[in-house]
Amino acid sequence: MTDGDADVLIRAGAVHTQVPGQSPQRALAVRGDRIAAVSPDPNGLDDMESARTTVYDLPAATVLPAFDDTHTHLILAGHSAHDVPVHQARTIAEFLDLIRQRARTTPAGEWIRTTTNWQELNLAERRMPTATELDQATDRHPVLVKRGGHNDVANTYALRLANITEDTPVPSGGVIGRGDDGRLNGRLIDNALPLVERLLPSPDLGRRIDGLRSASGQYAATGIGTVRDCMVTPEDYRVLQAAREAGALSTRVRALISALGLTSTAQVRERLDAMEEWRHSSDPWLGVWGVKFGLDGGLEAGATEEPYVCDHTFSGTLIWEPDALVEAVEAVVRRGWRVGTHAYGDRAVRVLLDVYERVLERNPGLPAGTLVMEHGGLADAVQRSRAVALGIPVTIQQPLLHDTAEVEEGFWGPERVSRIFPARGWIDLGAQVSAGSDFPVGQFGAMRSVWGMTTRQTVIGVKGPEYAISYDEALALHTTQAALLNGEEHLRGALAPGRLADLTVWDQDPAHCRGDALRDLDPTHTFVGGTLVTFTGAG
Fold this sequence. Notes:
It is a single chain. This protein is an alpha/beta fold. Strand 12, helix 8 and strand 13 (286-294) form a beta-alpha-beta unit. An eight-stranded parallel beta sheet has the order 5-11-12-13-14-15-16-17. It has three domains: 8-66 and 499-535, Roll (Urease, subunit C, domain 1), CATH 2.30.40; 83-197, Diaminopimelate Epimerase, Chain A, domain 1 (Roll), CATH 3.10.310.70; 205-485, Alpha-Beta Barrel (TIM Barrel). Helix 6 (205-221) packs across helix 7 (234-245) and helix 8 (265-275) runs parallel beside helix 9 (322-333). It has 18 helices and 22 strands.
């Protein structure tokens, strides 16, 4: 093979490069892990073909850049590959029976944990199970039921191991749940999660690598070539390194090392010390993006300006006091790392912008994109304008709204829910905005997210149609804008010579799909770095 030969040559109906002003191309050549050339003529790169070139003649296909999921949780997806699949249950009885089945094959005393991608409103009882009910499934094992990243339910065995009693002090920024009778019901929220989760044994490394192999393959199969995992512990990152070395990753990973559960700047500095060994990694598949903080809770504890509709005495939870968060964020940026902070309710959005404004004033000259708002769920026009003026990028996750709209209406009411993730409002102000799923709370998938942002459809109908955006805008939030968020706009996000060969092939042009056809559309091929990582067998 000569220097001019291609390793991969694709001839397609249209190659949408995402290069501004460039019309659709018809041929694309890959050499090594880079795009070598594109051509508007389907036969325009034929001189790059050799006996060793893998050729894809797909005259009806559409080629797009691979997508980024800019806020998701691959680590949790990897765990779920081996956890009890409670997301399949439709009643609490079925939920408990799945745990009971696992208990029969699990030695007494070993932990049992569940998948995280389920919602209580999908159960007939429309609530979470209690510790007492989990005890009915097994009283011989500690059980941890997770729902998303903010909620746990533990059985009595697990509560006892954690020494959680009626007299246990509630951690600041957390909740230890109680039933109507005032007794512990097993529920733990936000900063109370570590009370039990710190006891979980580290799973076998091989098992974790296998889970990441499965999970990253599932992401890639929907068209996602890079994930920005927003809750990675130092231990998790070492597992990602092992998975990378084993060739088990089908997506690139940009990790946010978690400061969730940390309550002081001293603890944050210890976490930064642990990160130092990863500062200069040049692996294009795996790297540390920065540090993740959480300012408020999730669906049931997002900090709002007005009380919840279900409880007029409650306005959500702020996990950090603003002064303390300023100090902690400063500790991170002064070490040269970026910061992404979870802010979901409108009060949290306002407080976070106050914090970021102070950090920017006290640290002039920070590189653009150092401080990022994760979610900005209920960001009104005033706060959106502030974020743009301060140069704060924001990540939004329409699949989260789609899957949880009914749950959220119970807490916030329909008017506020219709204003969650106002993509149109952000774009019209010129914000740097990018998109993701927030799996396991939302379902990941390249076109599922595009469909949601263009329709504002949810499980209970269209919410906030005035915030819908166009297909082309939604595509950019997962490609060019996502690469910008990661500081990789010169490497990824568009299909141009010299860029990494991260691309997807579709058997039809997604721009012409409508309704459920777009929601459920997956690519036939996903390439990352010129390597075919998933193939459906079509095309």
